[in-house]
Amino acid sequence: MRADKQGLYIAACHNDFAAYPRQARDGTLLMNHMAKRTRYSAWNLLAASPSHADWAPVWLDAEPKSRYDVVIIGGGGHGLATAYYLAKNHGMTNIAVLDKGWIGGGNTGRNTTIVRSNYLYPESARLYDFSVKLYEDLSRELNFNIMFSQRGLITLAHTRHDLDNISRWANAMRFNGIDAEILDAEKVRELAPRLNFDSGARFPILGGFTQRRAGSVRHDAVAWGYARGASRLGVDIIQNCAVTGFIRQGERVVGVHTNRGGVAGEIRADKVAAAVAGHSSQIAAMAGFRLPVTSYALQAMVSEPVKPVLDTVVLSPAVGAYWSQSGKGEVVIGGGLDLFPSYAQRGSFATSQMVLAATAEMFPSFGRLRLMRQWAGIVDVVQDSGPIIGATPAPGLYLNCGWGTGGFKAIPVGGWTLAHLLATGRNHELAEPFQLARFHTGRLIDEAAAAGIAH
Ligand SMILES: Cc1cc2nc3c(=O)[nH]c(=O)nc-3n(C[C@H](O)[C@H](O)[C@H](O)COP(=O)(O)OP(=O)(O)OC[C@H]3O[C@@H](n4cnc5c(N)ncnc54)[C@H](O)[C@@H]3O)c2cc1C
User: Fold this and answer.
1) What secondary structure letter does DSSP report for 103?
2) Is the minimum distance from the CB of 387 to ligand 1 under 6 angstroms?
3) Which residue in 163, 176, 280, 430 is a FRET match for 13, CA 20 to 30 A apart?
4) Could you read off the pLDDT of 12-30 as tens digits, one per residue?
Protein backbone atom coordinates (compact mmCIF):
# COMPACT_ATOMS: atom_id res chain seq x y z
CA MET A 1 0.00 0.00 0.00
CA ARG A 2 1.22 3.47 -0.82
CA ALA A 3 1.54 5.71 2.22
CA ASP A 4 0.22 9.24 2.50
CA LYS A 5 2.87 11.35 4.18
CA GLN A 6 0.41 13.21 6.40
CA GLY A 7 0.28 11.71 9.86
CA LEU A 8 3.30 9.51 9.44
CA TYR A 9 5.35 11.36 11.95
CA ILE A 10 3.83 10.42 15.26
CA ALA A 11 6.56 11.88 17.40
CA ALA A 12 6.73 15.50 18.41
CA CYS A 13 9.65 17.43 16.95
CA HIS A 14 11.79 17.04 20.02
CA ASN A 15 11.45 13.28 20.39
CA ASP A 16 14.32 11.13 19.26
CA PHE A 17 12.26 8.61 17.31
CA ALA A 18 9.37 8.94 14.89
CA ALA A 19 7.30 6.28 13.18
CA TYR A 20 8.47 6.31 9.63
CA PRO A 21 7.23 4.50 6.53
CA ARG A 22 9.43 1.73 5.22
CA GLN A 23 10.67 2.09 1.69
CA ALA A 24 10.20 -0.78 -0.79
CA ARG A 25 12.94 -1.62 -3.33
CA ASP A 26 11.09 0.33 -6.05
CA GLY A 27 11.06 3.40 -3.84
CA THR A 28 7.37 3.26 -2.84
CA LEU A 29 6.57 3.95 0.79
CA LEU A 30 5.05 1.08 2.78
CA MET A 31 2.61 1.67 5.60
CA ASN A 32 4.13 -0.70 8.18
CA HIS A 33 6.16 1.86 10.04
CA MET A 34 9.61 1.59 11.51
CA ALA A 35 10.85 3.72 14.34
CA LYS A 36 13.57 5.95 12.94
CA ARG A 37 15.89 8.38 14.61
CA THR A 38 15.04 11.94 13.72
CA ARG A 39 16.82 14.20 16.15
CA TYR A 40 20.51 15.07 15.80
CA SER A 41 22.31 15.01 19.16
CA ALA A 42 25.57 13.73 20.58
CA TRP A 43 23.62 10.93 22.28
CA ASN A 44 21.86 9.87 19.08
CA LEU A 45 25.09 9.95 17.09
CA LEU A 46 26.70 7.67 19.66
CA ALA A 47 23.70 5.37 19.97
CA ALA A 48 23.34 5.03 16.19
CA SER A 49 27.05 4.67 15.54
CA PRO A 50 27.16 0.87 14.97
CA SER A 51 25.34 1.13 11.64
CA HIS A 52 23.68 4.55 11.26
CA ALA A 53 20.92 2.58 9.52
CA ASP A 54 18.09 3.78 11.71
CA TRP A 55 18.26 7.46 10.80
CA ALA A 56 15.10 8.84 9.21
CA PRO A 57 15.57 10.45 5.78
CA VAL A 58 16.18 14.19 6.10
CA TRP A 59 12.89 14.93 4.31
CA LEU A 60 10.29 12.90 2.44
CA ASP A 61 10.00 13.31 -1.31
CA ALA A 62 6.21 13.58 -1.65
CA GLU A 63 3.83 12.82 -4.52
CA PRO A 64 1.67 15.82 -5.48
CA LYS A 65 -1.89 15.88 -4.15
CA SER A 66 -4.67 17.49 -6.17
CA ARG A 67 -5.27 20.33 -3.65
CA TYR A 68 -3.42 22.32 -1.02
CA ASP A 69 -4.09 25.41 1.11
CA VAL A 70 -0.87 26.95 -0.19
CA VAL A 71 1.37 25.97 -3.10
CA ILE A 72 4.86 27.50 -3.09
CA ILE A 73 6.72 27.56 -6.39
CA GLY A 74 10.48 27.27 -5.86
CA GLY A 75 12.33 24.99 -3.47
CA GLY A 76 15.18 27.39 -2.82
CA GLY A 77 15.84 28.81 0.62
CA HIS A 78 13.03 31.39 0.41
CA GLY A 79 10.37 28.89 -0.69
CA LEU A 80 11.38 26.30 1.91
CA ALA A 81 11.66 28.89 4.70
CA THR A 82 8.17 30.17 3.78
CA ALA A 83 6.78 26.65 4.09
CA TYR A 84 8.58 26.07 7.38
CA TYR A 85 7.33 29.30 8.98
CA LEU A 86 3.79 28.75 7.65
CA ALA A 87 3.77 25.45 9.50
CA LYS A 88 5.76 26.52 12.55
CA ASN A 89 4.44 30.04 13.18
CA HIS A 90 0.92 29.73 11.78
CA GLY A 91 0.03 26.04 12.11
CA MET A 92 -0.68 25.64 8.37
CA THR A 93 0.56 22.29 7.10
CA ASN A 94 -1.47 21.51 3.98
CA ILE A 95 1.29 23.03 1.89
CA ALA A 96 3.37 21.93 -1.10
CA VAL A 97 6.73 23.27 -2.21
CA LEU A 98 7.29 22.55 -5.91
CA ASP A 99 10.68 22.73 -7.58
CA LYS A 100 11.40 22.11 -11.23
CA GLY A 101 14.77 20.62 -10.27
CA TRP A 102 16.09 19.65 -6.86
CA ILE A 103 15.74 21.70 -3.69
CA GLY A 104 18.58 24.16 -3.20
CA GLY A 105 19.70 23.64 -6.82
CA GLY A 106 19.10 27.29 -7.73
CA ASN A 107 20.92 30.28 -6.29
CA THR A 108 20.61 28.94 -2.75
CA GLY A 109 23.13 26.24 -3.64
CA ARG A 110 25.23 28.51 -5.89
CA ASN A 111 25.95 31.54 -3.77
CA THR A 112 29.03 32.61 -1.83
CA THR A 113 27.17 32.34 1.51
CA ILE A 114 27.89 35.78 2.94
CA VAL A 115 25.43 36.91 5.60
CA ARG A 116 25.42 40.55 6.79
CA SER A 117 23.12 43.46 7.58
CA ASN A 118 25.32 46.41 6.57
CA TYR A 119 22.66 48.40 4.71
CA LEU A 120 22.16 52.17 4.57
CA TYR A 121 18.45 52.82 5.03
CA PRO A 122 16.35 51.97 8.10
CA GLU A 123 13.87 49.82 6.12
CA SER A 124 16.62 47.53 4.79
CA ALA A 125 18.60 47.60 8.03
CA ARG A 126 15.57 46.34 9.98
CA LEU A 127 14.80 43.65 7.38
CA TYR A 128 18.31 42.24 7.02
CA ASP A 129 19.21 42.47 10.70
CA PHE A 130 16.08 40.52 11.61
CA SER A 131 17.39 37.89 9.20
CA VAL A 132 20.88 37.84 10.75
CA LYS A 133 19.26 37.39 14.17
CA LEU A 134 17.18 34.47 12.90
CA TYR A 135 20.35 32.96 11.41
CA GLU A 136 22.12 33.30 14.77
CA ASP A 137 19.64 30.85 16.30
CA LEU A 138 18.82 28.76 13.24
CA SER A 139 21.00 25.70 13.97
CA ARG A 140 19.20 25.25 17.28
CA GLU A 141 15.78 26.11 15.85
CA LEU A 142 16.10 23.55 13.03
CA ASN A 143 18.26 21.04 14.95
CA PHE A 144 20.52 21.17 11.89
CA ASN A 145 24.01 22.64 11.89
CA ILE A 146 24.03 25.50 9.38
CA MET A 147 27.64 26.35 10.35
CA PHE A 148 27.11 30.08 10.84
CA SER A 149 30.63 31.44 11.26
CA GLN A 150 30.47 35.09 12.37
CA ARG A 151 33.97 35.93 11.25
CA GLY A 152 33.22 39.52 10.23
CA LEU A 153 33.22 41.29 6.88
CA ILE A 154 35.64 44.06 5.96
CA THR A 155 34.71 46.56 3.25
CA LEU A 156 37.89 48.20 1.92
CA ALA A 157 38.58 51.86 1.14
CA HIS A 158 41.19 52.64 -1.53
CA THR A 159 40.74 56.41 -1.94
CA ARG A 160 39.82 59.49 0.13
CA HIS A 161 36.40 59.33 -1.49
CA ASP A 162 35.99 55.68 -0.39
CA LEU A 163 36.92 56.71 3.18
CA ASP A 164 34.15 59.34 3.17
CA ASN A 165 31.64 56.83 1.84
CA ILE A 166 32.66 54.26 4.37
CA SER A 167 32.23 56.59 7.33
CA ARG A 168 28.79 57.61 6.05
CA TRP A 169 27.85 53.95 5.62
CA ALA A 170 29.19 52.79 9.00
CA ASN A 171 27.57 55.73 10.80
CA ALA A 172 24.21 55.05 9.10
CA MET A 173 24.45 51.47 10.33
CA ARG A 174 25.13 52.61 13.88
CA PHE A 175 22.17 54.99 13.75
CA ASN A 176 20.11 51.95 12.78
CA GLY A 177 21.41 50.05 15.81
CA ILE A 178 23.69 47.72 13.81
CA ASP A 179 27.32 47.05 14.69
CA ALA A 180 29.92 48.73 12.47
CA GLU A 181 33.54 49.57 13.20
CA ILE A 182 35.67 51.94 11.12
CA LEU A 183 39.19 50.60 10.58
CA ASP A 184 42.46 52.31 9.71
CA ALA A 185 44.92 50.59 7.39
CA GLU A 186 46.87 49.03 10.28
CA LYS A 187 43.74 47.47 11.71
CA VAL A 188 42.82 46.06 8.29
CA ARG A 189 46.33 44.58 8.06
CA GLU A 190 45.87 42.89 11.46
CA LEU A 191 42.61 41.30 10.33
CA ALA A 192 43.66 40.30 6.79
CA PRO A 193 47.47 40.31 6.58
CA ARG A 194 47.61 38.67 3.16
CA LEU A 195 46.05 41.69 1.46
CA ASN A 196 48.35 43.72 -0.77
CA PHE A 197 49.79 46.50 1.44
CA ASP A 198 52.66 47.17 -0.94
CA SER A 199 53.44 50.88 -1.31
CA GLY A 200 53.22 50.52 -5.11
CA ALA A 201 49.89 48.65 -5.05
CA ARG A 202 47.44 49.64 -7.76
CA PHE A 203 44.65 49.79 -5.16
CA PRO A 204 46.29 51.11 -1.97
CA ILE A 205 44.41 50.15 1.20
CA LEU A 206 43.66 53.28 3.23
CA GLY A 207 41.24 51.66 5.67
CA GLY A 208 37.78 50.16 5.74
CA PHE A 209 35.00 49.16 8.05
CA THR A 210 33.84 45.88 9.47
CA GLN A 211 30.60 44.36 10.64
CA ARG A 212 31.81 41.75 13.13
CA ARG A 213 28.49 39.88 13.26
CA ALA A 214 28.61 39.23 9.53
CA GLY A 215 30.01 35.95 8.26
CA SER A 216 29.19 32.90 6.26
CA VAL A 217 26.70 30.06 6.51
CA ARG A 218 26.76 26.66 4.82
CA HIS A 219 24.31 27.17 1.94
CA ASP A 220 23.11 23.60 1.37
CA ALA A 221 22.48 23.24 5.08
CA VAL A 222 20.03 26.14 4.97
CA ALA A 223 17.98 24.47 2.22
CA TRP A 224 18.21 21.02 3.82
CA GLY A 225 17.53 22.32 7.34
CA TYR A 226 14.38 24.19 6.31
CA ALA A 227 13.27 21.25 4.13
CA ARG A 228 13.72 18.87 7.04
CA GLY A 229 11.90 21.18 9.43
CA ALA A 230 9.01 21.73 7.00
CA SER A 231 8.76 18.04 6.07
CA ARG A 232 8.61 17.02 9.72
CA LEU A 233 5.74 19.44 10.24
CA GLY A 234 3.81 17.85 7.35
CA VAL A 235 4.73 19.98 4.31
CA ASP A 236 4.99 18.14 0.97
CA ILE A 237 8.28 18.74 -0.82
CA ILE A 238 7.96 17.84 -4.47
CA GLN A 239 11.04 17.90 -6.68
CA ASN A 240 11.21 17.64 -10.49
CA CYS A 241 7.86 19.39 -10.71
CA ALA A 242 7.91 22.47 -12.96
CA VAL A 243 5.08 24.98 -12.88
CA THR A 244 4.06 25.67 -16.47
CA GLY A 245 1.02 27.93 -15.99
CA PHE A 246 -1.76 29.03 -13.66
CA ILE A 247 -5.33 27.81 -13.21
CA ARG A 248 -7.62 30.87 -13.13
CA GLN A 249 -11.14 31.40 -11.88
CA GLY A 250 -11.95 34.75 -13.39
CA GLU A 251 -8.96 36.91 -12.46
CA ARG A 252 -8.05 34.80 -9.45
CA VAL A 253 -5.19 32.29 -9.42
CA VAL A 254 -6.59 29.07 -7.94
CA GLY A 255 -3.81 26.63 -8.73
CA VAL A 256 -0.96 25.68 -11.00
CA HIS A 257 -0.38 23.58 -14.07
CA THR A 258 2.68 21.40 -13.72
CA ASN A 259 4.52 18.73 -15.61
CA ARG A 260 3.45 16.32 -12.80
CA GLY A 261 0.56 16.36 -10.32
CA GLY A 262 -3.03 15.15 -10.35
CA VAL A 263 -5.41 15.37 -13.30
CA ALA A 264 -3.45 16.69 -16.30
CA GLY A 265 -0.77 18.08 -14.01
CA GLU A 266 -3.16 20.38 -12.12
CA ILE A 267 -2.64 21.24 -8.47
CA ARG A 268 -5.28 23.49 -6.92
CA ALA A 269 -4.60 25.85 -4.04
CA ASP A 270 -6.26 28.67 -2.07
CA LYS A 271 -3.08 30.69 -2.44
CA VAL A 272 -0.01 30.37 -4.64
CA ALA A 273 3.35 31.95 -3.81
CA ALA A 274 6.39 32.16 -6.07
CA ALA A 275 9.98 32.35 -4.79
CA VAL A 276 11.91 31.60 -7.95
CA ALA A 277 14.60 34.35 -7.95
CA GLY A 278 15.93 34.86 -11.51
CA HIS A 279 12.88 33.16 -13.02
CA SER A 280 10.35 35.52 -11.43
CA SER A 281 9.68 37.35 -14.71
CA GLN A 282 8.77 34.02 -16.33
CA ILE A 283 6.28 33.26 -13.56
CA ALA A 284 4.82 36.79 -13.86
CA ALA A 285 4.47 36.34 -17.64
CA MET A 286 2.52 33.11 -17.03
CA ALA A 287 0.18 35.12 -14.77
CA GLY A 288 -0.15 37.94 -17.31
CA PHE A 289 1.80 40.83 -15.77
CA ARG A 290 5.30 42.29 -15.99
CA LEU A 291 7.81 42.79 -13.19
CA PRO A 292 10.49 45.49 -12.82
CA VAL A 293 13.04 42.66 -12.58
CA THR A 294 15.98 41.95 -14.88
CA SER A 295 17.70 38.56 -14.81
CA TYR A 296 21.48 38.38 -14.96
CA ALA A 297 24.08 35.67 -14.44
CA LEU A 298 26.16 36.15 -11.30
CA GLN A 299 29.23 34.00 -10.98
CA ALA A 300 31.55 32.69 -8.30
CA MET A 301 34.54 30.39 -8.14
CA VAL A 302 36.63 28.44 -5.65
CA SER A 303 40.32 27.60 -5.48
CA GLU A 304 41.84 24.30 -4.45
CA PRO A 305 41.66 23.82 -0.65
CA VAL A 306 44.57 25.21 1.38
CA LYS A 307 45.42 25.68 5.05
CA PRO A 308 43.72 28.61 6.83
CA VAL A 309 44.82 31.83 5.13
CA LEU A 310 41.85 34.19 5.56
CA ASP A 311 39.63 34.21 8.63
CA THR A 312 37.34 37.08 7.73
CA VAL A 313 35.41 38.12 4.61
CA VAL A 314 37.01 40.89 2.53
CA LEU A 315 35.16 42.97 -0.04
CA SER A 316 36.50 45.66 -2.31
CA PRO A 317 33.76 47.65 -4.07
CA ALA A 318 36.46 49.34 -6.18
CA VAL A 319 37.75 46.15 -7.78
CA GLY A 320 34.32 44.49 -7.80
CA ALA A 321 35.25 41.29 -5.96
CA TYR A 322 35.15 39.67 -2.51
CA TRP A 323 36.88 36.76 -0.82
CA SER A 324 36.44 34.32 2.06
CA GLN A 325 37.73 30.86 2.92
CA SER A 326 35.35 27.94 3.23
CA GLY A 327 35.41 25.39 6.04
CA LYS A 328 37.01 22.96 3.55
CA GLY A 329 39.84 25.41 2.88
CA GLU A 330 38.86 26.65 -0.58
CA VAL A 331 39.22 30.37 -1.22
CA VAL A 332 35.72 31.44 -2.29
CA ILE A 333 35.80 34.26 -4.84
CA GLY A 334 32.79 36.29 -5.89
CA GLY A 335 32.45 39.10 -8.36
CA GLY A 336 29.93 41.35 -10.06
CA LEU A 337 27.14 40.64 -12.49
CA ASP A 338 27.55 39.86 -16.16
CA LEU A 339 26.24 43.16 -17.41
CA PHE A 340 23.79 41.79 -19.95
CA PRO A 341 20.50 40.04 -19.19
CA SER A 342 20.62 36.29 -19.62
CA TYR A 343 19.16 32.98 -18.45
CA ALA A 344 22.36 31.10 -19.36
CA GLN A 345 23.63 29.78 -16.06
CA ARG A 346 27.32 30.02 -16.94
CA GLY A 347 28.84 33.44 -16.32
CA SER A 348 30.90 35.22 -18.96
CA PHE A 349 34.62 34.81 -19.43
CA ALA A 350 35.10 38.60 -19.34
CA THR A 351 33.73 38.75 -15.77
CA SER A 352 35.77 35.73 -14.64
CA GLN A 353 38.89 37.36 -16.01
CA MET A 354 38.16 40.66 -14.24
CA VAL A 355 37.49 38.95 -10.91
CA LEU A 356 40.65 36.83 -11.14
CA ALA A 357 42.77 39.85 -12.07
CA ALA A 358 41.34 41.65 -9.03
CA THR A 359 42.15 38.63 -6.85
CA ALA A 360 45.77 38.52 -7.96
CA GLU A 361 46.03 42.27 -7.37
CA MET A 362 44.48 42.31 -3.91
CA PHE A 363 45.94 39.01 -2.61
CA PRO A 364 49.20 38.46 -4.54
CA SER A 365 49.83 35.09 -2.84
CA PHE A 366 46.47 33.74 -4.12
CA GLY A 367 47.91 34.07 -7.64
CA ARG A 368 49.58 30.70 -7.02
CA LEU A 369 46.33 28.89 -6.24
CA ARG A 370 44.72 26.66 -8.83
CA LEU A 371 41.10 27.36 -9.61
CA MET A 372 38.92 24.34 -8.94
CA ARG A 373 35.38 25.34 -9.98
CA GLN A 374 33.51 28.27 -11.52
CA TRP A 375 29.73 28.52 -11.83
CA ALA A 376 26.85 31.00 -12.01
CA GLY A 377 23.25 31.49 -10.95
CA ILE A 378 20.51 33.66 -12.44
CA VAL A 379 19.70 36.54 -10.10
CA ASP A 380 16.67 38.86 -10.10
CA VAL A 381 17.82 42.46 -10.05
CA VAL A 382 15.47 45.33 -9.23
CA GLN A 383 16.22 49.03 -9.89
CA ASP A 384 16.60 49.99 -6.22
CA SER A 385 18.30 46.71 -5.25
CA GLY A 386 15.48 45.99 -2.80
CA PRO A 387 13.29 42.88 -2.64
CA ILE A 388 9.61 42.46 -3.49
CA ILE A 389 7.60 40.57 -0.86
CA GLY A 390 3.86 40.90 -1.35
CA ALA A 391 0.70 40.54 -3.38
CA THR A 392 0.70 40.79 -7.19
CA PRO A 393 -1.75 42.16 -9.78
CA ALA A 394 -3.10 38.58 -10.06
CA PRO A 395 -5.30 37.95 -6.97
CA GLY A 396 -4.29 34.75 -5.18
CA LEU A 397 -0.66 34.96 -6.36
CA TYR A 398 2.09 36.27 -4.04
CA LEU A 399 5.75 37.00 -4.69
CA ASN A 400 9.07 36.84 -2.94
CA CYS A 401 11.79 38.04 -5.32
CA GLY A 402 14.11 40.89 -6.27
CA TRP A 403 16.88 39.86 -3.86
CA GLY A 404 19.35 40.07 -6.71
CA THR A 405 22.90 39.38 -5.64
CA GLY A 406 22.15 39.31 -1.92
CA GLY A 407 19.16 37.18 -0.98
CA PHE A 408 20.90 34.29 0.74
CA LYS A 409 21.33 36.38 3.87
CA ALA A 410 17.62 37.19 3.69
CA ILE A 411 16.27 33.63 3.50
CA PRO A 412 14.98 33.53 7.10
CA VAL A 413 13.30 36.94 6.90
CA GLY A 414 11.98 36.35 3.36
CA GLY A 415 10.30 33.14 4.54
CA TRP A 416 9.08 34.67 7.80
CA THR A 417 7.44 37.70 6.19
CA LEU A 418 5.90 35.87 3.21
CA ALA A 419 4.48 33.22 5.56
CA HIS A 420 2.93 36.01 7.63
CA LEU A 421 1.26 37.48 4.54
CA LEU A 422 -0.02 34.12 3.29
CA ALA A 423 -1.39 33.16 6.69
CA THR A 424 -2.90 36.47 7.80
CA GLY A 425 -3.62 38.28 4.54
CA ARG A 426 -1.66 41.30 5.84
CA ASN A 427 1.88 42.42 5.02
CA HIS A 428 4.39 41.90 7.79
CA GLU A 429 5.59 45.33 8.97
CA LEU A 430 9.16 44.49 7.87
CA ALA A 431 7.91 43.78 4.34
CA GLU A 432 5.53 46.74 4.08
CA PRO A 433 8.11 49.06 2.39
CA PHE A 434 8.99 46.35 -0.14
CA GLN A 435 5.75 46.12 -2.11
CA LEU A 436 5.42 46.25 -5.90
CA ALA A 437 3.48 49.52 -5.41
CA ARG A 438 6.75 51.38 -4.78
CA PHE A 439 7.50 51.27 -8.49
CA HIS A 440 4.29 53.28 -9.08
CA THR A 441 4.61 55.67 -6.15
CA GLY A 442 8.35 56.20 -6.68
CA ARG A 443 9.08 55.51 -3.01
CA LEU A 444 12.17 53.45 -3.82
CA ILE A 445 14.70 52.47 -1.15
CA ASP A 446 17.90 52.85 -3.07
CA GLU A 447 20.39 50.37 -1.65
CA ALA A 448 22.52 50.16 -4.77
CA ALA A 449 25.52 51.47 -2.83
CA ALA A 450 25.24 48.77 -0.16
CA ALA A 451 24.11 45.99 -2.48
CA GLY A 452 25.76 47.07 -5.73
CA ILE A 453 28.44 44.43 -5.52
CA ALA A 454 27.65 40.80 -5.52
CA HIS A 455 27.67 39.40 -2.02
C1 LIG B 1 27.19 33.35 -7.58
C2 LIG B 1 26.23 33.91 -6.57
C3 LIG B 1 26.73 34.43 -5.39
C4 LIG B 1 25.85 34.94 -4.44
N5 LIG B 1 26.35 35.32 -3.23
C6 LIG B 1 25.50 35.70 -2.24
C7 LIG B 1 26.01 35.97 -0.94
O8 LIG B 1 27.21 35.81 -0.67
N9 LIG B 1 25.14 36.38 0.01
C10 LIG B 1 23.81 36.55 -0.24
O11 LIG B 1 23.07 36.97 0.65
N12 LIG B 1 23.29 36.25 -1.47
C13 LIG B 1 24.09 35.82 -2.46
N14 LIG B 1 23.60 35.50 -3.71
C15 LIG B 1 22.15 35.65 -3.96
C16 LIG B 1 21.37 34.50 -3.37
O17 LIG B 1 21.95 33.28 -3.73
C18 LIG B 1 19.92 34.54 -3.83
O19 LIG B 1 19.37 35.83 -3.67
C20 LIG B 1 19.07 33.55 -3.03
O21 LIG B 1 19.69 32.30 -2.94
C22 LIG B 1 17.71 33.42 -3.67
O23 LIG B 1 17.04 32.34 -3.05
P24 LIG B 1 15.64 31.86 -3.62
O25 LIG B 1 15.15 30.79 -2.73
O26 LIG B 1 14.78 33.05 -3.84
O27 LIG B 1 15.98 31.34 -5.08
P28 LIG B 1 16.68 30.00 -5.60
O29 LIG B 1 17.57 29.41 -4.60
O30 LIG B 1 17.26 30.33 -6.94
O31 LIG B 1 15.45 29.02 -5.76
C32 LIG B 1 14.48 29.20 -6.75
C33 LIG B 1 14.00 27.82 -7.17
O34 LIG B 1 12.88 27.99 -8.04
C35 LIG B 1 12.88 26.91 -8.93
N36 LIG B 1 12.04 27.27 -10.08
C37 LIG B 1 12.25 28.24 -11.00
N38 LIG B 1 11.25 28.26 -11.90
C39 LIG B 1 10.38 27.27 -11.53
C40 LIG B 1 9.16 26.76 -12.06
N41 LIG B 1 8.61 27.28 -13.17
N42 LIG B 1 8.56 25.72 -11.42
C43 LIG B 1 9.08 25.18 -10.31
N44 LIG B 1 10.25 25.61 -9.79
C45 LIG B 1 10.88 26.64 -10.37
C46 LIG B 1 14.36 26.71 -9.28
O47 LIG B 1 14.61 25.38 -9.72
C48 LIG B 1 15.04 27.03 -7.95
O49 LIG B 1 15.39 25.86 -7.21
C50 LIG B 1 24.44 34.99 -4.69
C51 LIG B 1 23.94 34.46 -5.89
C52 LIG B 1 24.83 33.91 -6.82
C53 LIG B 1 24.27 33.33 -8.08
Assistant:
1) T
2) no
3) 430
4) 344 567 766 655 556 566 5
